[in-house]
Every structure is written in structure tokens, then in C-alpha cells.
Amino acid sequence: MKNEKAIVVFSGGQDSTTCLFWALDNFKEVETVTFNYNQRHRTEIEVAEGIAKELGVKHRVLDMGLLNQLAPNALTRDDISIEEKEGELPSTFVEGRNLLFLTFAAIAGKQSGADHIVTGVCETDFSGYPDCRDVFIKSLNVTLNLSMDHSFVIHTPLMWLDKADTWKLADDLGAFEFVRNKTLTCYNGILSDGCGECPACLLRKKGLEEYLQRKEAR
């Protein structure tokens, strides 16, 4: 893979930024793509742009406003609260998001000569989103290759990692402080450690504490 090119689906959050550092470590050339679906916080796109610029990576933003029209949820509507109810998908689930993002990333990647697509989806520490499952990614990989007659490989470096392991990966890549201080994971649009109260912040904080405890014990 060292001599090949990858495109990273990039939001500027902890997971996708860790994946970006992973891609930079594994590929000769890397570019990023961020999707503007009129999400709750424009800050997400600004953070992604800033990180890509700081790391010297080509970055593009694609307009996915149609997704906002089709999928009302807590990430696309200010009047829908962020909720997680037992037995139901969280109100932050955006129907079809990863299906569309990965499909458009593949189209962009083929045009720019990238055979590898990197995404930060994870089946270990996740909110039950069906489009984060390994079986979905494998299925879509086959579909993309057939639809475009091209040999893409979708990489999911975080698929079987919990959040503590994701922090460890960032640390192993020499990116721990960068990821902690410069990424945006918070559903309320607050950089770094975030609001500390939304589901995304709680998951991130729990993983961070677990990793730091493990590291100290070693």
C-alpha cells in the first residue's frame, strides 16, 4: 500500500482524524473529502479544513444538502433533541449517510486515482448505527467495485477497536495530543474534550480515561 493513493472520508472528529494519520502512515499519497449536508454545526467543516491544511493534505468539501432534506434527525435539525432510547436507533442516526458518503468518496477517488477508501466506522464502540457494521462495509465494497468496474479497497482501521484502543492507535501514530486538542467530536460543536455531556463526548471521555489508566499501569 505504501506506493498507492488513498482518500479518507473526513469529518475532523477523533475517529476520522486518527484514520487520517493511519492513512498517512500507510499510503504514499492521501487526500480527504468532507461532506456538507447542512449538519447542525458548520464548525465541523471548518475543523476538517483546518486539520487538512495543517497536515498538508488535499481536501475537498462536497455538497450533500439533499441528505438534509431526506433525513431529518438531531444532526440536521435544531428542533430535534439528541436522545438515545433503549431498543431504538439514536436520534443522531442519519439514514443512508455512510452509504452515500462512501459512494461519493469512491467516485471522487476514482477520478483522482485513489484505489483505497479509508473510513472511521466502528462496530465495537458505536451507537447501533447499521451502516457502521463490518458486513455493510464488505457488501458496499463489492457493490462499488461492480458498479464502477474498479478495484477499490475500503479500509476500516477502527472497526474492531473500542474507544480506548482508538486513543492507543492515535498515540502509536504520534498523534495523541493532536487528536485530543484539535478534533471535534461533540454533538454540540465544542472542540477538543467537548461539552462532556452529549453521547459522543461521554464515549470519547470514557475511552480516554480507560486508555490513560492502561498506559499508567504499564
From TrEMBL:
Zn(2+) binds at residues 186, 195, 198, 201. It comes from the Bacteria. ATP binds at residues 10-20. GO terms for biological process: tRNA queuosine(34) biosynthetic process. Keywords: ATP-binding, Ligase, Metal-binding, Nucleotide-binding, Queuosine biosynthesis, Zinc. Coiled coil: none annotated. Its cofactor is Zn(2+). The keyword ATP-binding applies. One of its GO terms (molecular function) is ligase activity, forming carbon-nitrogen bonds. It catalyses: 7-carboxy-7-carbaguanine + NH4(+) + 2 ATP = 7-cyano-7-carbaguanine + 2 AMP + 2 diphosphate + 2 H(+). CDD domains: QueC-like. The keyword ATP-binding applies. Pathway: Purine metabolism; 7-cyano-7-deazaguanine biosynthesis. Binds 1 zinc ion per subunit. Its EC number is 6.3.4.20. It is an enzyme of class 6 (ligase). Homodimer. Belongs to the QueC family. Catalyzes the ATP-dependent conversion of 7-carboxy-7-deazaguanine (CDG) to 7-cyano-7-deazaguanine (preQ(0)). This is 7-cyano-7-deazaguanine synthase. It comes from Salipaludibacillus aurantiacus. The lineage of its organism: Bacteria, Bacillati, Bacillota, Bacilli, Bacillales.
